[in-house]
Every structure is written in structure tokens, then in C-alpha cells.
Amino acid sequence: MTELKNVELELSRFRARVLFAAAMVLLGFGLVFARLAYLQVLRYDELSTRAENNRISVVPIVPNRGLILDRNGVVLANNYSAYTLELTPSKLADLDATIDELAQVVNVSAADRRRFKRLMEDSKSFESLPLRTRLSDEEVARFAVQRYRFPGVDIKARLFRNYPLGEVGAHVIGYIGRINQAEKEKIDESEDAANYRGTDYIGKLGIEQSYERELHGVTGFEEVETSAGGRAVRRLRSSPATPGNTVVLSIDIKLQALVEQLYGNRRGALVAIDPKTGEVLAFVSKPSFDPNLFVDGIDVENWKALNESIDKPLLNRALRGTYPPGSTFKPFMAMAALNSGKRGPHQVIFDGGSFMFGNHRFRSHGDGGLGMVDMHRSIVKSSNVYYYSLANEMGVDLMYEQLAPFGFGQLTGIDIEGEVRGVLPSTAWKRKAYKRPEQQKWYAGETISLGIGQGYNNFTMLQLANAMATLVAGGERHRPHLVREIRDVVSRERRAVGVEHIEPLDLKPEHVDVIRRAMYGVTQEGTSTRVFMGAPYQSGGKTGTAQAVGVRQNEKYNASRLAEYLRDHSLYTAFAPVDDPKIALAVIVENAGFGAQAAAPIARRVLDYWLSGVYPSEEDIAASQRSETSAPIGTPRLAAQVALPAAVAAVPSTGASAPAPTAAPAVVPSGTAAPAIATTPASAPASAPAAAGSAPLPSESAPPLPDKPAAPRPGSPLPPAPTPAPSPVPVPAREPSPTLPIVEVR
């Protein structure tokens, strides 16, 4: 049979299918057009910005760091550019394998690997990190021809900090180091976050740290068009970086270098101040260190040598080392007596060689005394008995009231971080410093040795020099400062760091004259007569000998029987000229004995340099280093004709290119703006450190000593604290005794 088809039904079904298909097609196109409209219209701004960001990369331009100059224009810190081999960990599939392959092209030492691993711990995986720094031109060429093998690895030109004079003035200048995680977080929370985009280094110590904002400059940027593979195609626009400002110090670096040379291998500190302005002329801490070692991460060996040295080269003794002032305290005690009315200049005390307090005998000059002593003679001949009895009459709290205004036991406010307060004792201080009730009580016998600068008295050389400047200036006070002016390298504008006057002390001119004349007598007929023999100017001074350890009542001090670190400290304070002081200073040579033997000769050479423009002979410098001379010997030289010492170059790590010799330190004329960069990409200069394994910075290690330091360093200055902030109340190195002290004091 023939099957009959329902054509109408078939056509109806076909039409339905076509309509459904057409509807689906229209729906699909509708969705496409709707999505297109959503993306092209509603989200146009957002997506166009994202697309532009994929096409355009904004690269920060790190500014050249500002120079640091001394008062005469000598460059103390500058920059140079060198090639670095850098890796971006997030772009590498196998980091260790990549480094192994790179080591076949350029030399990568074990120290480089350790430093890179340490940088990775403190950085994010997408940041570019240097594996090798200061590549030679040959190494750059070798890598360039094989660059295609190493995606995520690139050659960059980076700026490096350089300290041309090496160890000279290192504690003042400071150094820069790579920004750690804590510093990153602090920067991100500050208003300077945008200005530190792309910056890897920051000031860590000294002027580099305290004047970071002036030295850093303003970060620029450039917009670069990139390909899909991330390669730069062309630069679209840019905003140049603004170099950091030039910081001019009040330090005379030649004087600084002379003092450091005079110390030789001895330890100590010297601070010299202009009493009229508060400018610091020399700020010496010995031994010192080479700041170039820290710029790119100090290697483990050098860090261990610095951190574990018994001489503590990382300790800024001028700022953080506290010492008993010894007899250099006596002129201030005399002024306190005059101000308080406890004694007049002509009142006479009998010095029989010792002072009895109860059953305890405080010794003076051996077994003999000075006889009848007035105030003038007590300073000239350094009578201990005079000041034992004066301290007993005044009492500790009156002494505090009279001496604190001179800055003892107070922060001077100098313009670098890390200053410690020291200790000027009082009954209130002792109650705060100790916990147990029997320790908090002040015993009358503890007052006696304070009169000669012993006991709890502990001050920095900065405080002692600042107090001397205040005293000889008749009570005029200025906040000591190390920076003289700031120079804008763009506008060439000079901004003087204003002399900050502090309310003067109410000192009577006749009283000041008594002290000045007595200290002048010290150099003419007193304890430093031989040192200042033949000086072409009139100066005043005071010798001091401070105990590092106590001596029992029935024993005598014998330096030859003691280890070096247990011997007395040698101190001297000085000013000149007598009638119009232009310089005041305080100097200490640790464990060097009598003040006139080691400290006073250094002070004499400083005054000769500053007032007469005279530089000691090589023979005299060598004898001074051994404490074998008083007045200068040999033929002196004109200071202007003596060259600055050359810096000692850091030892390059294995595989680093041999550095070229460093030229003599540049001098920037006072009327010109200093350039912010010294060279084009090249090998490192001699004074720049080689790439090496990284280690903790001094501020991140070196824990403070316990209250009772272990042998062989009792009586040594406090070590650096973990943070630069000084403690509010330093705890003395020894605990008080509930009984009267039984010591021999000289």
C-alpha cells in the first residue's frame, strides 16, 4: 500500500523548527551583542585602563642619593653606577638550577648565593633581586650573548654608595643598607610610601639615617610600552627623578683624620665643639669600621670580626660610650660651689693627702698632700681632698641641681640618633634605677667620690665637651649639631642649619673668670704644663684619670699588675684661646693611665691644628700613638699642605672583577652644586666592598651587656643597643653597697 503523507503537518513542523532555530540564533546574537555592549559601554573605562596597563608599564626612577661633604667641601659619601645580575624568583621554574647554569657564564660565589637567599627572605617573589653586583664589562658581554637561555634574569645598572675615606668618620657619616621588612612596613604606613617605589636602600646609621629625607631625593617615573612578552618597545613619557640634597657637615674631616691617626690602635673618643655656635668640629670614636662593607650586605667573616671584637669597633663611643669623668669634673664642681654660695674662690681647705669620712679613708695624691688649697690651686694641682669635702658639704641633690643645667645626665639633642643619657646621680634617680628598697636608699658615703667625678657619675664625651663649651662661653648654650647647611642640587639654594640657642645659664662673669684662669693655670704650672710647653696660644685644660675598676682601701694602684682593659682611663678637657674661646673639647683614651700622658697630647695637637693651622710631624704622630711624647716633636707641617689619608679598600669576594684604584677624595667648591653621581656603569672603585654574603646589621644584633659585665671588660662603655633609641634611665654597671665604699681614688 502506498503511504500517504500529511504535507501540511510536515510543513508546520519544519516551520516550527526553523522558527526555533532562528530564535536561538537571534538569542545567541542578542547575548553576544548584550555582552559586547556591557563590555564596550558599561565597563569601557575600567577595561580600557586595564588594557592600557597591560600595554604600558610604569617604571619608578630611583633618584641619585645626595652627597655628604665636610665643612671644606671634601666629599665623604658619593655614588657610582655598576652593572648587577638580577633574578626575579617568580619567573623562574627552578631557582637553584638557574643559578647553577648562571655560574657557568659568570662567576657566582658561595657568598653571593648566601646573600641572595637572605635577600629572598626579606623580599617578595616578584621583586628583582641582585645575585651578583659590580659585574665587569667582560661578564656583562658573556651574559648578553646567552641571555635567551635565562628568562627572568636580566642585567641592570644600579647606583651604589661609596665612602671614599673608608673608616675615617664612619660613626658620624653612617652607612646605607638594604631596606628590611620592618622598614618596608614603616615606609608603607608613612606619607613617603610613593617616594620609595623602587628604592632598595635606606640610611642605617649616622647622618645617612638622620638626614634620610634630605639625602633620598624625589622618585621619578617613566611610562614604557611593552610587548605581550613583557619586553620594552618604546618610552611614552617620563618624569625625571630629583636628586637628593647635598648635606654639608660642620666636621673638618682632616682634623677628624688626624685625631683618628693619633689614637693608633688605642680605644677612645674625642668631641670638639665651637662654643659660639654649637658646631661639632670633630666627632671621633676609635676604633672605627669601613662603612663600605655594609652597603651591599656585609659578609659573615667581616661581620663576625666586627661584632665579636673585644675593642667593639661598632660602638660609637662619642655618642653612646659613658665614662666617669674623673678630675675633669672638678671645674664644674667649683662653678657649682660658686653659684650655690657653698664656697668662695679664696676659701682655703687643708689637703693632707686623704679625706676621712667616718672610718673610711678617701685617698688623694699618694701618701702626701698639697697643704693649704684655695679654689684656683685645687684645679691647677687637682686636689682630691678639696672636692671630697665640697661634695660632702653640698650633698648629692644640690650637686644635681647645679650640674644638670650644664647637660650632665641629659640628652644634648645632637642631630644624629642613638644618644644615651648617661648618669648624673640624685636621690630621685637612685629610687627609679633600683628595685629593692635597700638599694634605693642614698648613703652619705656615696656622695664623697662624686666630687672628683667617680662613683655613679657616667657621661659621654659629647656631654663633657658640650658642658665645657657652655662653661667657657659664660653660660651661653647652643644645641650641638653636625650638619652645617643643606644645598638643593636643583635650585642651588643653600639652607643654613640654624644655630639653636638654648636659654643661657645665669653664671656671673667673675665666677667664669675664676674657672677660666684656673684651667689656664693647669697648662702653665699644673698637671699638663709639659704638654702645652711652647704653645703659641693661651689655652685652659683639665686632666682626668677615671677608674675602670675599684682599688681596695689598703692597696695601691699598679697599672703593670693589671690587664690592659682594667687600667685607668686617660681624660682631658680643653678650650682655647682663654679670653675668647673658639674651640672646646673632651677626649678620653681608654685604659691609658694618667690624663696628661695620653689624652692631653691629643688635645694639644687638635688645638695646634685649629688655632695655628699646624699638622704634627710623622715622628710626633708615631710617638703620640705610643703615649711617648708630651709637647710636639719633630718639624711640624702646614695643615693645608697635608693630604688626606687614602681609604683602605675592601677585599673583593672570589670572582669579582678587580677594582680600579680610587682617586683622591673630591672637593666640591662651595659655590657649586655637587654632582649626585660619580661614574657611569663600570667596575667598583677600590673603596667599594665586593658582593658578599649578608649578615645582620649592628643595630639588629650586639645585645647590651648585663648589669655586671664579665671580665675582662669591667668598667667599659655600654655597647650598642638593639634600637637607636636611648634608654630613659641607664642602669649603672654595678649595684650599690649598703655600706660605705672602700676604694682608693686618684
Automatic annotation (TrEMBL):
One GO CC annotation: plasma membrane
Segments forming domain Penicillin-binding protein dimerisation: 61-235
Keywords: Carboxypeptidase, Cell inner membrane, Cell membrane, Cell shape, Cell wall biogenesis/degradation, Hydrolase, Membrane, Peptidoglycan synthesis, Protease, Transmembrane, Transmembrane helix
Active site: residue positions: S327
Keyword Nucleotide-binding belongs to the record: no
Pathway annotation from the record: Cell wall biogenesis; peptidoglycan biosynthesis
Entry's EC annotation: 3.4.16.4
Residue spans of biased composition, Pro residues class: 701-739
GO MF annotation list: penicillin binding; peptidoglycan L,D-transpeptidase activity; serine-type D-Ala-D-Ala carboxypeptidase activity
Matches recorded under Pfam families: PBP_dimer, Transpeptidase
Transmembrane segments: 18-38
Domain called Penicillin-binding protein transpeptidase: residue spans: 268-607
The UniProt record lists the keyword Ion transport: no
Topological type in the membrane: Single-pass membrane protein
Low complexity bias locations: 679-700
Task of the protein: Catalyzes cross-linking of the peptidoglycan cell wall.
Protein name as annotated: Peptidoglycan D,D-transpeptidase MrdA
Organism whose genome encodes this protein: Caldimonas brevitalea
